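stage 2 :: seqdesign
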């Protein structure tokens, strides 16, 4: 399907014993190791293509002005090692609608919003 240009997105039935919540990033590892995606292609399949499939390509799945500011910030480079997204100790921040849902563990003063308006869109 990938070779033929068919868009493939990760996702599945989570919340069961064999696919518990919080294990979604493993799908990206499978895309890289089993389906021949580059780490960037795997990430884009879960973000930008996710916004398209949700019929909100101008609001979801990208880090741009006017988009929802939902992000996971990691200590490392997932383009070098996609499995870093599965290491909870490497998650240093989570933003939801432009506000920190989970603060940085360093205790540094972090603004509650970084360039996002009240709807969580980047300005």
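stage 2 :: out
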């Amino acid at each position: 399907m990938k070779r033929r240009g068919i868009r493939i997105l990760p996702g599945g039935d989570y919340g069961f014993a064999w696919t518990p919540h919080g294990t979604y990033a493993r799908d990206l590892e499978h895309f890289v190791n089993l389906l021949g995606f580059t780490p960037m292609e795997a990430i884009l399949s879960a973000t930008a293509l996710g916004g398209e499939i949700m019929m909100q390509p101008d609001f979801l799945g990208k880090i741009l002005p006017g988009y929802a500011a939902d992000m996971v910030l990691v200590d490392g480079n997932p383009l070098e090692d996609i499995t870093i997204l599965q290491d909870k100790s490497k998650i240093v921040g989570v933003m939801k609608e432009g506000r920190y849902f989970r603060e940085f563990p360093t205790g540094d003063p972090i603004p509650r919003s970084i360039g996002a308006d009240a709807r969580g869109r980047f300005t």
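stage 3 :: structure notes
- Strands lie at 71-74, 91-96, 99-102.
- The radius of gyration is 15 Å.
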